[in-house]
Design a protein that fits this description.
This protein is mostly helical and about 325 residues long. Helices cover about 70% and strands about 5% of the residues.
Length: about 325
Amino acid sequence: MGAATDDAQPRLGMLRETYELGLELAGAGWPTPAEAFGHLFERGVAFVEKGGELAPIRGSAPAELLEALTRTRAELLAIDSGYTCTRYGVVQLRQEGEALEKTWLELADDHLALRGQIVASRREEERLKRELARLGAPTVPLPEHEELTAPQPSYARKRRAMHEDLLEGAELVEVELAMAGAVLEAGDRLAEASGWLAEWGQHARLAVFAQGLSLALREREASEVDPDDAASVESAREQAHLKLNQLERRHATLRLRLFELRHNNRVLTWRITALRVEAEGMRSRLQLFEADRSRLEGDLAAWLAALPPGRRPGERKRGWRALVARLLTPPGREQ
């Protein structure tokens, strides 16, 4: 039994189905789920340390049948443990991608709002410069309109529906592992040496745990086989082979989905970074437009104040000539 560690027990992410299967395989003799899962992790460490060789089933049945069963069980153990990690990785990356997509859409909305403000500010600056030009003030025309960067469409989802049936009901959970610190350190070393750390990163411990889980499952299946009965051995081999084929197909499908999700999440991360950088530039540009508008409004007010009476826009001319002109102008045609 793995001894409980101190207050800070390590935590391990997995799917709800893996959690329930682990409790079932560990048995009811463990005081807490943390100790049950710590035991399975410890079994995985010991199994990998010994080379990952599954013990053969021995009996009086034909040797070729027993050997075939042992090979199939060993292949099933390897694919089953890998499937556990891949299925978890797909669900975890899918949730991560949903959060990234939500952030991306929020930033895209902000991008469009800033874009609208910049267009409105530019039009206002053009209007003020036209007013100044009519008064004879020197102005610097704005450069030709340049297209503002629009947010790119979201990433392709053409394959998402193909995998939903394999992920139906999948739920992420976290469990504590109660074990000796030396076992955890050994598991981390094995995860790095086996390439699981490079493959799964912070979730590499799940690969070690999956070895212990799959080992316990293979042992339970072996307990149901009569090694002295050729029919029982052949039936077990056929069942193991059928399950192996099913898991291989599902695993291949989810490995493809895993690759797609990793790529999509990287692309979304790049787009989020790009939108944030562009937003900073757009805010700086908007501040320049606002400063120019304030300056132009001040210049326009100064030019209007310098005009002689009667020449200011909207101001009615005074004097007897202007009065006669107004009297002679038909109704509705007054300027």
